[in-house]
Known about the structure:
By secondary structure, the chain is α+β, with helices and mostly antiparallel strands. The chain folds into two domains: 24-38 and 47-190, no CATH class; 199-335, no CATH class. Helix content is 15%, strand content 35%. The chain contains five helices and 23 strands. Strands 10-7-11-12 form a four-stranded antiparallel beta sheet. The radius of gyration is 29 Å and the shape is elongated.
Amino acid sequence: xxxxxxxxxxxxxxxxxxxxxxxxxxxxxxxxxxxxxxxxxxxxxxxxxxxxxxxxxxxxxxxxxxxxxxxxxxxxxxxxxxxxxxxxxxxxxxxxxxxxxxxxxxxxxxxxxxxxxxxxxxxxxxxxxxxxxxxxxxxxxxxxxxxxxxxxxxxxxxxxxxxxxxxxxxxxxxxxxxxxxxxxxxxxxxxxxxxxxxxxxxxxxxxxxxxxxxxxxxxxxxxxxxxxxxxxxxxxxxxxxxxxxxxxxxxxxxxxxxxxxxxxxxxxxxxxxxxxxxxxxxxxxxxxxxxxxxxxxxxxxxxxxxxxxxxxxxxxxxxxxxxxxxxxxxxxxxxx
Length: 336
C-alpha cells in the first residue's frame, strides 16, 4: 500500500466491543502505520546511515565486521541491524591484470518474499499460521570499475537512487583486504552541518560542440556536457565553471595543421573568449555553454570571428585547434 498517489482518502480504523475482527483488519492497521512512518522518513530525511553500521577490517583479513546500526532508504524504509554481523570479503584474486579490485559494501531493505518466518501459532479451528516475520538487512558487495563507479549498471542505479545504501569501501587483492576498510564514501542520512563542496576538471577533445548562431537564442559559441557523478552529490548543487586555455591564436605561432583556419577567416590573428552559462544542472551533470559574440577590436584582430562558428564548415579542425590550445573546464559544486 502507498498512501500518496494510490489512495483517494485516508481512513481511521475504529473498533467496538463485540466486533468480529479478521486478520486482514489488523494487517491493514499495521500496514497503514508502517506506510505513514516510511512517508515521514522519506519526506524529512535523505537515504543513508543514521547511526551505527561501523565497518572494520584490517589488511590481510578475509572478512569485515559490521556493528548494529540504523539506516533508511529512499522509500523511507528502516534498515535495522540489531546485532554484530560478519561479512566475508569477495573471493577475488585481482582484476585480471595483477592489480587489486575495489568493492562497495551496501545494505538494503529485504523484499517481502525474503523475510524469514520466525514464529507460527496454532489457530482456533484452523491450521496454524505465521504471526512474525524477521527483517534482516541485505548486504551486497558491489564491484567498482576504474572510474570508481559500479560496474553493474543496475546496482549503480540502485545506489544513486538510494535503494541500496553504501556503508564502506574495500580494496581486495589475493582474496583478502589489501588495506583497512574505508568508510569515507558512506552515505549519511543526516545532512552535514556545513555545505558539501566538490570540484573537478574535464579535459575534452571531441566532446566540444560548436553552436552556430541560429541553433538557439543563446547565440554562437561552444557547448559541452560536464559529468559530475564522481562527486557523489545527493541533492542538486550550485555549480560554477571556468574554461582554461589559450585565448590568442596567430598564424605565426600555430601549427601548420591549422593554417587553413586562418585562410578561411582571412585573418593573421584572432581571439576566442566568451560569457559562460550553466544549463540543466542535476546531481550528476550540467551543460556548459559559452556565448561568444563577434567583436572587432582592431581591423586586424577580431574577437570570435563569425566564420569560426560557420555550420557549413566541418567542425573537426576547429575542435582540434581548441584541444591543441589545451582548453579544458574547471568546475566547482556547492551542495547545501
